[in-house]
């Protein structure tokens, strides 16, 4: 029934008109019917990792509650390290999992090898034993072990992802951050890649996400690791959200077919990477070596007698800062009282200052205490200490 006043008829009809469905919550068919769209179910995640890089990535993932409904940690077993196995070593990721009350599973050690966890024939924990479940996701970040294909094949190609701290295909391998610092790269980044068979190559899977990062001047392994871990956690969460969206990321191969370019590989850090050669390396080169590898293996030289000496916190001196009375032969060192350091002549006339030293089987001490403890038998006739080259 219409109202006598025309303008009230329009208001009356507008109030009584049925509300239109929201397009953001529904889709319309060709017959103008509306149906609700089900939101994708979040993932159940099995996260493999161990060190501080893993922890930072995991914290970012843990805080993104919209991408997971269940999450479990897999990490290395506890072990005893040091002289006579006197110090306990616990995975930092295990401690973080306990702090956040997340289920933590440790890989049993390989028979006969105290430090190597064995993944062969290791059963996946519940609920991940069901193969091919599209809601199950396996993630790794600095786990330190290659997962066997018998485990990876239980997950789809876009459900087995690794967070790798480099702009792949550059610096594939176990030590990308160390080699990035050592080679003075100006740019690096993080890549989210598919994990594939070991026979197809290390870190060669398709890329699902990538983010470039500028390397700050004077970066060390630890400072760059923290920067890349933060970026890697954000990129991982962004990638997982894309996988849950209507437009998931399209994987792309790392290297175009037929590409002749060779890419640098990040070899595992070896003891030789910490050896100091004063004859062949400048002071700046030795400082860079310390920044890259010193966290794992301190810069090391040796005396004429069979004793190794670690050089901690080395600094390259400018020509104006270098003391006047310094031996010209590379490898010869004296104590500089004004600077309270041991100074060593290096290649090209450069000078390295070392504030702390550690002789084999001794404690880490200051340069002054170390120099005062050097026996006269270790010194040259002119009163210097000569460090020998490694063969």
What can you see in these coordinates?
This protein is an alpha+beta fold and 391 residues long. It has two domains: 43-243, Rossmann fold, CATH 3.40.50.170; 271-386, Roll (Methionyl-tRNA Fmet Formyltransferase, Chain A, domain 2). 21% of the residues lie in helices and 23% in strands. It is built from eight helices and 20 strands. A seven-stranded mixed β-sheet has the order 7-4-3-8-9-10-11, with helices on one face. A five-stranded antiparallel β-sheet has the order 14-17-16-15-20. α2 (52-63) packs parallel to α6 (221-243) and α5 (176-182) packs antiparallel against α7 (283-293). The model is unreliable at 10-37 (pLDDT under 50).
CATH architecture title of the largest domain: 3-Layer(aba) Sandwich
Count of the domains: 2
Any low-confidence stretches, pLDDT <50, length ≥5?
A: 10-37
CATH class of the largest domain: Alpha Beta
Beta-strand content: 15-25%
Total of DSSP H or I helical runs spanning 4+ residues: 8
Distance between the termini: 105 Å
Q: How can the largest sheet be summarized? A: 7 strands, mixed
Shape assignment: elongated
Helicity range of the residues? 10-25%
If strands are numbered along the chain, what order do they take across the biggest sheet?
Answer: 7-4-3-8-9-10-11
Radius of gyration: 29 Å
């Amino acid at each position: 029934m219409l109202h006598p006043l025309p303008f009230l008829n329009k208001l009356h009809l507008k109030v009584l008109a049925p509300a239109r469905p929201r397009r953001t919550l529904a889709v319309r068919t060709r017959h103008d019917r509306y149906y609700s769209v089900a939101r994708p179910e979040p993932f159940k995640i099995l996260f493999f990792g161990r060190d501080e890089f893993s922890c930072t990535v995991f914290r970012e993932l843990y805080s993104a509650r919209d991408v997971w409904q269940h999450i479990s940690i897999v990490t290395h077993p506890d072990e005893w390290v040091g002289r006579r196995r006197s110090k306990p070593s616990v995975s930092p990721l295990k401690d973080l999992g306990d702090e956040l009350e997340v289920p933590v599973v440790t890989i049993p050690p390989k028979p006969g090898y105290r430090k190597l966890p064995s993944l062969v024939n290791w059963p996946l924990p519940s609920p991940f034993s069901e193969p091919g479940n599209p809601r199950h996701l396996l993630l790794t970040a600095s786990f330190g072990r290659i997962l066997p294909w018998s485990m990876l094949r239980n997950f789809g190609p876009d459900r087995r992802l690794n967070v790798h701290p480099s702009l792949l295909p550059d610096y594939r391998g176990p030590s990308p951050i160390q080699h990035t610092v050592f080679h003075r790269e100006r740019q690096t980044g993080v890549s989210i890649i598919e994990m594939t068979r070991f026979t197809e190559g290390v870190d060669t899977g398709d890329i699902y996400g990538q983010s470039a990062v500028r390397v700050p001047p004077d970066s060390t392994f630890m400072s760059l690791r923290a920067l890349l871990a933060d970026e890697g956690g954000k990129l991982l969460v962004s990638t997982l959200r894309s996988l849950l969206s209507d437009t998931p990321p399209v994987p792309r191969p790392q290297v175009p077919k037929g590409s002749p370019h060779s890419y640098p590989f990040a070899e595992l850090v070896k003891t030789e990477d910490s050896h100091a050669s004063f004859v062949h390396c400048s002071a700046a080169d030795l400082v860079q070596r310390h920044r890259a590898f010193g966290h794992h293996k301190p810069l090391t030289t040796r005396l004429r007698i069979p004793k190794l000496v670690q050089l901690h916190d080395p600094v390259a001196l400018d020509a104006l800062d270098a003391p006047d009375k310094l031996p010209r032969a590379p490898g010869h060192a004296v104590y500089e009282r004004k600077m309270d350091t041991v100074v060593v002549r290096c290649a090209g006339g450069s000078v390295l200052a070392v504030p702390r030293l550690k002789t084999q089987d001794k404690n880490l001490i200051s340069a002054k205490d170390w120099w005062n403890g050097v026996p006269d038998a270790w010194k040259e006739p002119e009163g210097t200490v000569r460090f020998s080259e490694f063969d």
